[in-house]
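Q: Structure for this?
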Amino acid sequence: MRTNISRHKIRSPFVAKVEELSGQNLLACYQCGKCSAGCPAVSQMDILPNQIIRFAQLGLKEELLKSNSIWICASCLTCNVRCPKGINIAEVIEAVRQILLRKREDHVKVEELSDSERGDVPPIALISNFRKFTS
Amino acid sequence: MKLSYFPGCTLKNHAKNFEDSALCSLKNLDVEVEEIRRWNCCGTVYSLATDDLIHHVAPVRNLIRAKEAGSDKLMTLCAMCYNTLKRSNERVRSNPEDLDIINDFMYREDIDYKGDVDVVHLLEILKNEIKFENIAKKSVKSLKGLKVASYYGCYLVRPQEIGFDDVENPMIMDELMTALGAEAIDFPYKVECCGAYQTVDKPEIIADRTNQILSSSLKQGAEVVTVSCPLCAFNLDQRQKETQQKFPEFKNIPILYFSQLLAIALGCPQDSLRLDLHYIDPKPILKEKGLI
């Protein structure tokens, strides 16, 4: 993958927004990779959790917004409790999700779910799914 | 002892086996439980975005309901309710400005919330207040010979601030099972995420996790797996169907709430166990061990 890095991207409003919504200092990350090593979802992700932080540091907005990883993460918080720098990685991923959801770009379209997808699961599954994947 | 109780959305339907067995157990332990009036959904997940105050309104409103019931302690059974209520509570306790905004928003409530209700999980009540040794004394049926792997999942133990148990190696359910006479089985996937709400739109992920988690428990010799979260229970029990389809070598194992095993030990009637709500039938193994 070819990626262009620029001072403009690094100082973009996108990076500031991710830091604001997540409450995290992205530059605290030194890329040890422990978050990705312990993440139960990495096998399904196109960008790993440590890479999400790196991409966010560099302001690679388009790459992050189109990644499937932000929708694979279930906020299990394993990364958060293991980060040696105390960064809440799950909150950074939440911030990226929120940037899309707040523009009404829902990941799950409730009206397109089948009867069995809606009817067979308990309320706790539907509510949490819609809380995380719809605006 | 009298406790205010918050059931949450799933305890009244899919997880009725959790509620009925827990309430019967508490009755047999001489604890009076009162369900709070007019409770509402907690939201199921704690909002991770810094500015998202609106999603703390629902949890805080439930804390007002506890206060209205004259209680300074609110007990939950569901791990996700526990996490959401407790974290929202901590958030408004440590951010008085946020609490003011939320109280202003709920101006039609009779009282303001002042941060003076503690959120506790049933397991904490059992361990810290009733104490496991007293439960063992009141037990009328030993779980001796039953090999139980306790699965904690995510929201009962993470993040650290929840302060429930060790985040990597929680033991509270194992200790309870040991106190009831069962053999607690250790296994490496006890805090690994089951995939949670991905079960709605990506059930194939749940099949992968269920295969990993349950196969690991079976490899360690478990005969049943206990849980404390209705979403974990759904994924690990009902999704064994999809798991079996995806992994033909996968072997089934019954999933029980810890409260169901507690109810058996405390002599609760079998109808309080609601064993009809399970996909993988726990009755054969419970009969084999002489427990039902």
